[in-house]
Amino acid sequence: MFNPEILIVGAGLAGVAAATELARAGHPVLIVDRAARAGGAIHRQPLPGQAGVATAAARWNRLIAEAEALPIRWAFETRFNGVDHQGTALLTGAENRMLRPKALILTTGAREAVRPRPGWTLPGVTTAGAAQIQLKTMGAAPQGRVVLAGSGPLLIALGAQMTRLKNPPVAIVEAGRPFAHPLTSLRLPLGYLREAAGYMATLLAARVPILTGTRLAAIRAEGETLVSTLTDGNTSREIVADMVCLHDGIRRNDIGLTDCPALSVLRLGDCAEALGARAALEAGRAGGRAMAQALATGTTPTAPNSPLLDRERAAQARLARIYAHDDFAALHSLPSDTVICRCEGRTLDDLRALGPAPRTRELRLLGRFGMGPCQGRFCGEWVARAISDTPQAPVPAHPLGEPRWPAAPIAVADLHAAAPDTGAAPPHPHGVHE
Amino acid sequence: MSGGTIFWGSRAVPFLTGESVASALGRAGVRSFGLGPTGTARAVFCGIGQCQNCLVSIEGRSAEACLTICRDGLHVLPEAEGLSDV
Ligand code: FES
Fold first, then answer.
1. For residue range A10-40, what is the model confidence (pLDDT) as tens digits?
2. Nearest residue to B56 via CA among B27, B29, B21, B23
3. Which residues from chain B sit within 8 angstroms of residue A134, using beta carbons?
4. Which residues pair with B35 in a beta bridge?
5. I need a labelling partner for A46 at 20 to 30 A (CA). Which of A20, A87, A338, A359 fits?
């Protein structure tokens, strides 16, 4: 009898861990990823022949060796475009087809939050995560003078990795004051402290300036260089660089991923709750087992929980306190022509033109916020904060409305090419191996 | 080290096996990927396929430069120019 696959979206820690558990329980598993290789963001693998710079490589090597010994089917350079109300999933790219999976596991990881600032759409301004992915794949630091700015532990980690690869950042600009909370810091798990101490030792030895309590307020282009304005509330100064990497925190990446009544859907790892690598591995394994159990008993799988996940939750909450800042209040004093929606170039002025308390419908249809191809991934949070009286307060997960199908824009040609699933070989087997 | 060449307009740009179009262009000093159909500036931002700010025309089709893996001889153009070509 035809035994449909369990579809796993995302070949990072959580996805591969879930795949191994399900394959071990005897389920056919198809794991898809848009990248060319497994690894996700944390364990992004270097190009063939480049030196790896990854931390905790042993953790990944163990997991991938285990997975590769099991009958899991991998489809790389393949995009999951969503699932319709009947449970039909659409894949495009190297594996281009529709299929009816037995269950769906979403392990799409995290995304970065970047607070809008004048100049944040200039070429040469990227997220810190983009620079880190580049560093991991090439085994080399980004070239030229690089400023890292925003807030969060990623800035320190990336700065140290760049330093070890012989191009230290010209400055790390941190809105919070993480060094002002030694007692809270000491209550972090030992692994966190050890990692942070290693990064700090590297940065201090290389004399990389770490400016805390400082915001990167604006960026302007002067020829090929980028001039950033920094302010600590009292004084402001300028810093010149070739590249500016921004990062204002990590959010779970579940935008555009709808639930489906016809299908068991489980979200695992950072896309369920951004708790980092240790938690993603644990949740992937536990979630894979929970799904196998649910399929065996005809029940609905429940999201995993464990003491380790509780510990990581507490650690993340502590980190948030250590890095607390009031930078988001700056949204209210941004110049009115600051771009909020990067996709369609919609500005703060366009947002204010919608009146004092616009509804979601007005934001989308009149303001066109969240209507561009990124589906509000990069503007949703800032629209919600900018129209709120308390821009620092938490905002809902989908401030511009519930996610829609498809998960990302699809080319019409891909839709035509994706024939309904017949169990036959996919039309473009390139990049797929068993 | 194996690799090949892609074309940014008429300019030949070398790449390493497995490298993304965005990475090859970036290492060749191309950081501005021209304009999209509505005049927005294209360049790498998120690096992982979420922002759609790096869309370019690859062999006549719009695609994310940060996700597309280089193949020898690939023709890449700013999105606005590539689409008017088809
Ligand atoms: S840089 Fe964001 S999608 Fe490519």
1. 999 999 999 999 999 999 999 999 999 999 9
2. B21
3. 23, 26, 47
4. B41
5. A20
